[in-house]
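Forum: Protein Structure Q&A
Topic: Joint prediction for protein chains with partners

I've read a bunch of threads here and the consensus seems to be that you should model interacting components together rather than docking separate models afterwards. I'd like to see that in practice. Below is the full input, 657 residues plus whatever partners are listed. Could one of the regulars post the assembled result?
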Amino acid sequence: MAEKNLLTIKDLVLYFRTSKGAVKAVDKVNFELGFREAVVVLGESGCGKTSLAKALLRLLPRNVEAYSGSIVLDGLDTMALNDEEYRQQIRWVRMSLVPQAAMNSLNPVLRVGDQVAEPMMVHHGVKKEEALEQAKKMFQHVGVPADFLTRYAFELSGGMRQRVAIAMSLVTAPSLIVLDEPTSALDVLTQANIFNVLKRIKKELEISFILITHDIATSSELADRVAVMYAGQIIESSDAMGFFTEPLHPYSQMLMASVPRLRGDKEPIFITGQPPSLLNPPTGCRFADRCPQRFGKCDQEPPVFEKEGRLVKCWLYE
Amino acid sequence: MALNELNTAAPAVQAGDTLLSVDDLHVWFELKRWGFGHAGYVRAVDGVSFKLRYGESTAVVGESGCGKSSLMKTILGINIPTKGDIVFQGQHLSKMNRRELKWYRSQVGYVQQDPYGALAPFMNVERILEEPLIIHGVSSKTERMERIYKVMEEVKMTPADDFLHKFPHMLSGGQQQRIVIARAMILEPKLLVADEPVSMLDASVRVEILRLLRNLQEKHNLAVIYITHDLSTVRYFSERIFVMYAGKLVESSRIEPLVQQPRHPYTQALLEATSDPDANNALTFRELPPGEPPSLVNPPEGCRFHPRCSQIIKGLCEVEVPPNFEPAPEHLAACWLYK
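Posted by a regular:
Agreed with the consensus. Here's the joint model:
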């Protein structure tokens, strides 16, 4: 059966157990991702976007209180698999992760080539020579000279290490890569370079991306679609063109208006107040306390409304 | 009271007077071999000069490793310059004795990059703000508390009583950064050095902190050195901008002319690499210079940007160091294209 979507997430929930109660880091998240598509998950720190990445790849800490919902990847219901099956069939085979601060995640005592080749050996059971050959190809894709294969992480600059981390996620030819803040610690020029690399990979290898970031300006470099996350929930999900020209949810509107721009002379604004605690989120709309367009209904939780093919969780679009 | 005497001894200020001047500053760090042998220098800052007037806000823009932090630390009196000097209100930093240096440090506030890392976790807000006052000889507790309340109001942490007994981990990132700013302001400095003050904060609070800094700057006629790698925030904050590359200033100008018409190829590349939120970005590749910034141990001959420059003039750029040319009034560019 041919699936329309590469990835469909329904009612994904990830709560963490703490001494003060459950932290609702991911609270009934829904979204879909097509083939060869890049979706950007935008959100501020503490909104649960990294937890979403962890939930997707089932890289869970020990204090999980609840982990449920459905994740269907390429027609396969991953939630039905046990941990070992998940490791063998999904992680790094169909979906891989470039973790936050990936450039510091490389093992300092291994040659970078060996590290990039390792997922190949573990997951596809190929010989080391063959895996290294594949690693070399991936190095070309991300623009790292092939003779860097025998170097160690400390011999590489930050941008090069980030490229190596991306190469490592590509090596097993997965259909989906989750990038968690891939450029947040890098300089402007290096950032722009990495995005050029990602754009090229997307074109050449026909891979889908989930890009998790708080940086709205650079996220537009890769996005086909945008999902905005606030306090554990996705509050808006739309195509990039629509989102960047006219965001719908009041939070997205204010977030967009808070970006300092290099061109044009709009004065940026800021959002007063703070996001609610995920320990005990408000029962109504979670943004209501900071929202300038709040009205009576906002005390109840808004459902997701559809407007011109875009989804928004706000009573204004009833 | 010794400190106050020094304060009043300074001559009356006129608008446009120079507050701080940096003359041909070199900060080199020696590399050791086997712990004692000499193995060259890291030329972190290599011949930087500029003047800062009273109440002027300036941005220093550059990538990591270009020497902007070394420059900042030298201005704060943490690094000792290898060559050249810093002159603050007519006094040479290198000739200051201990007491004068202490006074100098009360005149220069420092806003760190990572607010959580900059605040002692075992001190509450009151203690954090009180400490500089104790060190600089404000002996009366009532006066100290008065000044703490005043500065808390300035950074809009009101009512102050709600916050004074909190510890840094109980505050949000934006609030922590406000406390850092309050601590920098409490001695009423004339110069504020802000090292990427918003890079660790979320987008929605960034603008709030930048606006707070700008209000303080205008109200107290503060001179501010704002160090960043993010060109898009510079526009909302500073009047002048210095672009630094590999230990040297490559371009300096007022903000708008630089954004409209950058002269140095490196500045052009920086502007090209800075994105605005726009869905069309995803459709195009950006034109970027190849390679990476050079090693500061062995920087390239001539112009330091020449190995990456697309507009290189063969036989000139790789041989001779470009002096500062002035392609437009008050707009300096160290590039042979403008000779």
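The radius of gyration of chain A is 20 Å.
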